[in-house]
Amino acid sequence: MLTSICGINWGDEGKGKMVDLLSEGYDYVCRYQGGNNAGHTVINERGKFILNLLPSGILRENVVNVLGPGMAIDIRHLTEEIGRLREKGVKITPENLKISDRAIITMPYHVLLDCLEEDRLADQKFGSTRRGIAPVYADKYMKKAFRMGELLDPDSLFERAKGIVEWKNLTVAGGYGHAPVTAEEVVAYFKTYGLPLKDHICDTGLLLDRANRAGKKIMFEAQLGALRDIDFGIYPYTSSSSTIAAYAPIGAGVPHLKLDKSIGVMKAYSTCVGEGPFTAEYFGEKAEKLRAAGGEYGAATGRPRRVGPFDVVASSYGIRCQGADEIALTKLDILSAYEEIEVCTAYELDGKIIREFPYPGALDRCKPVFEKVKGWHTDISKCRKKEQLPREALAYISYLEEACGCNIVYVAVGAERDACIKLK
Ligand code: GDP
Predict the structure, then answer these.
(1) Would the pLDDT of 348 be above 90?
(2) Which of 40, 77, 110, 200 is catalytic?
(3) What distance in Å separates the CA atoms of residue 368 and residue 102, rounded to the nearest whole number?
């Protein structure tokens, strides 16, 4: 059984919570793309955890967690994240955490380049999380990235490091005028942060293939959402990896396997971190109210998120990109603050009403068309059964199902693990 859990929107949909909940009964949870620019928040009986690199299955005793070959791993960050979790009593061993030998390594110079470029761009910046993700994926495709498998023998890396550093300094020192990077510091870095991870490093493709043959259940956990996908998102304001479900078997190292189920996590309203077009965006007091109600501040960066009502146009596109068989609708409880709930049902582009998500270049010219539906205006955070939800909340769910042509199976009404209702 292969299931993916992915984001329908711009990220921050609550994937961590849903993976934590739905991974019960799964044997493997695998991250397959991106790096520590994610911030998956999980709240359960063990406490509150923010996971950047580790799969959300790490909080379950019997789950084997995998960082797949499609990921970019900041080894210092990973070491610190493992340390933070261990301090809270989470067991992390080479048995329950496996790291792909093919995953690329985010180096300090990638983080540096990310910051130097964002600063150079000033008010034209992309709104990068400044965690080095774009520079390291760029190096991957230049075939100049280091991979986890190389950490098994850092001394042999010196010559290769010299060549890469020489090339890197053309940009770091030559372009940006920053102090150059040295091969010695690269190798020393690998010894400090890489060697201690060596017992976790393996061919995760082989591991997952064997697990699948043995009838084990595998869950793939995406980072960010469809609209941040490098190919299908709001390029260039996207992440640098493939966030879509179809990429999960590839980024996990099992490209020959097909998903049995794609579960899309979709938020009951819209949020977006960073720059780029966000058609349904609220401003001023309207935005303040929704941001405060939803606590919309980035888990990885603390940045206030841009907010708006549910966007049918963008979400329908996200559902299509993710091939979502089932939807988990999250944060429905936040809309309890409203007597009437606005929904963006179409865009106006150059005087025409459109309902299909356009080529991203046209988004700057799109204006939102809002409709209003009746709210329930009462606390639903304690509801645990479909029958306990107010009629208007059920009507809102049906409205979204119809508008987006999707199948909403789960509804989350709070951050805690049990604050979720299975509708079907
Ligand atoms: P992710 O990156 O998709 O995992 O999402 P984030 O962790 O960035 O953001 C989701 C935030 O909403 C976290 O703080 C979660 O604890 C919280 N959350 C998730 N689902 C719900 C929900 O249904 N209701 C409420 N109130 N909070 C939720």
Answers:
(1) yes
(2) 40
(3) 43
Angle, helices 133-141 vs 108-121, to 10°: value is 110
pLDDT at site 303:
77
Tell me the whole-structure pTM to 2 decimals: 0.94
189-196 LR contacts (CB < 8 Å, sep 24+) = 189/75, 189/76, 189/107, 189/108, 190/75, 190/146, 190/150, 190/151, 190/154, 190/157, 191/154, 192/76, 193/75, 193/76, 193/78, 193/79, 194/75, 194/105, 194/148, 194/151, 194/154, 195/151, 195/154, 196/79
Residue 127: per-residue pLDDT:
74
Closest among 43, 99, 94 to 67, alpha carbons compared? 99
How far, in Å, is the centroid of ligand 1 from the Cα of 294? 9
| Whether the predicted pLDDT of 15 surpasses 70 | yes
Would the CB of 325 count as within 6 Å of ligand 1? no
Q: Using one digit for the tens of pLDDT, what is the confidence trace for 254-285? A: 999 999 999 999 999 999 988 899 999 999 99
- pLDDT attached to residue 297: 85
CATH 1.10.300.10 segments of the chain: 104-197
Q: How far is CA 240 from the centre of its chain?
A: 12
Q: CATH for 265-422?
A: 3.90.170.10
Give pLDDT tens digits for 182-218. 999 999 999 999 999 999 999 999 999 999 999 999 9
From atom 12 of ligand 1, which residue's Cα is the shortest distance away? 14
CATH superfamily name and code, 2-101+201-263: Adenylosuccinate Synthetase, subunit A, domain 1 (3.40.440.10)
Peptide bond preceding 236 in cis form (omega within 30 of 0): yes
Residue nearest ligand 1's atom 16 by CA: 415
- Where exactly does CATH 3.40.440.10 map onto the chain? 2-101+201-263
Q: What is the pLDDT, as a whole number, of residue 299?
A: 65
- Active site (annotated) includes residue 12: yes
376 three-state secondary structure: coil
Whether 221 lines ligand 1, by a CB cut-off of 6 Å, is: no
Give 285-314 pLDDT, tens digit per residue: 999 999 999 999 876 667 789 999 999 999
**40 given a catalytic annotation:** yes
Q: Is the CB of 296 under 6 A from ligand 1?
A: no
CA separation for the pair 252, 104 (Å, rounded): 13
Ligand 1: distance of its center to the CA of 70 in Å?
24
